[in-house]
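Encode chain A's predicted structure.
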Amino acid sequence: MIAPTTIGEFAVIRDYVVVYSNVHIGDHFRTGHFALVREGTSIGASVLLGTSAIIDNDCVIGDDTSLQTGVYVPTGTKIGRNCFLGPRATLTNDRWMKYDGRPLEPAVVEDGVRIGANATILPGVTLGHDSIVGAGAVVTRDVAPETVVYGNPARRGERKNET
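Encoded structure for chain A:
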């Protein structure tokens, strides 16, 4: 038997959004148009899923997280609380780009991470809490907590004083 989907109170799900069965969505969830959420996914409260964003199966998205237009989250990915994924940010999980029985290696995005537009996070990478990934970066290695990275391949940058 297929488990039902549960959607919290005050959710706003716009036209042409597809939510599969066996998905749990918290209160105050909002979407743009044409988004997709696959089976086995758990989405926290106050999450924004932008237009044309895709969350594949068996993912976990923490509370107060924003996935902007066109974000791609592959199977098995875990994203913490209070994260921001900019437009067209792409996470990946298949190092070999060919399904041959090897396990997938989803990225881990810890609490408070901010990822700029068009950044790409390669398989198995962990983004430490409160780290920042610059727009267009290609992240090939783990990023330490409270670190800024940018470029291709991503390299450590300086964190400016935020006020």
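The chain has no helices and 22 strands.
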